């Protein structure tokens, strides 16, 4: 790996006594880690059931290192949304953001959703999560990951933060800005980033980061908290961006971040933290926590529901969820408690997709299956982990199973839903979403 000279010089300046250790750590293998989806399973229960040996990530209660040979993406528990595979230092920012039940939370740069899935866990199915990313294509992975986690009260949107702030001035209790950056902390894991660094380094990203952070600060409620993070080490993309927003938004103040072994403070900014790959087991990150002055206002609750397709209605009577369904074109959504007006901005999803109606045919949605507990549907089949029907179901095959009645059935592994099937005389016709089927 041939590293850009400007970057080498910068790291030598930043780490005058440690740069040898830093550069030699770039030859080490990177770490594989998973973060437990506490919306579906407690950390204790996951540890009891875990198919992998787990070693805790020190700065978060729900993150664990796993052996990369364990192939965590190829386990039925992953298909059931029980965990997210995440670079360990990337587990820090969402963990630092104070989130209370009922809060309105914004993730400004959310795709593919590593931190949004953690914020959804913190909200515990209350309040509102607005997960935004300017890239509509990256928003598809964001949507899929939030669906896997069984997230219900989320809006997934694709706007530049400069547009978003016009709609949501001083709206959010907590905001995460995980900014686009030159990615110095990802060079070991993703070598192709070294080439893009030569085209777009810190000087390219710093003005973008300042703009996004200014926009985010405009959307923060009085008394609200904001975390700014990057996976790069250049001070102009980190401390300088924070100094900039403290000038443009004098109501903001920096709060100290608790130190974990291996963390170091920011450059002339002891409240912020820097994670370096030669000091911790992870690729590296920068994070700063800010708070707005003033007293927060409470949010108004608006429960929306409306008339829906009759066939869908009949099916949804079998689902034990409060009646908050609403039809939008060919989609039936289970609406979150509190939704801002949605006209005039790019919303990819608002609430939980419960079902679709295509050419008069009704289909329950994969997102609904992944958001339910087995007891919330009236016909469930659960296979044990070692039952070969689990893998066959995940491959999209028809499997045999006894059911009380024919029709829609929720298929689970160890009581964790994987998707729907249609039962017919002891056969389960596979209805697992095609993009989730294993090859
Ligand atoms: C570091 S990545 C986010 C990773 C994500 N937080 C996660 O944990 O999975 C930065 C993201 O910022 C998005 N982005 C870049 N400029 C933006 C802007 N002006 N407004 C919103 N998102 C932006 C990029 O598309 C990219 O997905």
Automatic annotation (TrEMBL):
Residues 22-293 form the SAM-dependent MTase RsmB/NOP-type domain. The keyword Transferase applies. InterPro entries: Methyltr_RsmF_N, MeTrfase_RsmB-F_NOP2_cat, MeTrfase_RsmB-F_NOP2_dom, Nol1_Nop2_Fmu_2, Nop2p, RCMT, RsmB/NOL1/NOP2-like_CS, RsmF_methylt_CI. The keyword Hydrolase does not apply. Pfam families: Methyltr_RsmB-F, Methyltr_RsmF_N, Methyltranf_PUA, RsmF_methylt_CI. GO terms for molecular function: RNA binding; RNA methyltransferase activity; S-adenosylmethionine-dependent methyltransferase activity. S-adenosyl-L-methionine binds at residues 109-115, 133, 160, 178. SUPFAM superfamilies: S-adenosyl-L-methionine-dependent methyltransferases. Keywords: Cytoplasm, Methyltransferase, RNA-binding, S-adenosyl-L-methionine, Transferase. GO terms for biological process: RNA methylation; RNA processing. The active site is at residue 231. Belongs to the class I-like SAM-binding methyltransferase superfamily. RsmB/NOP family. This is NOL1/NOP2/sun family putative RNA methylase.
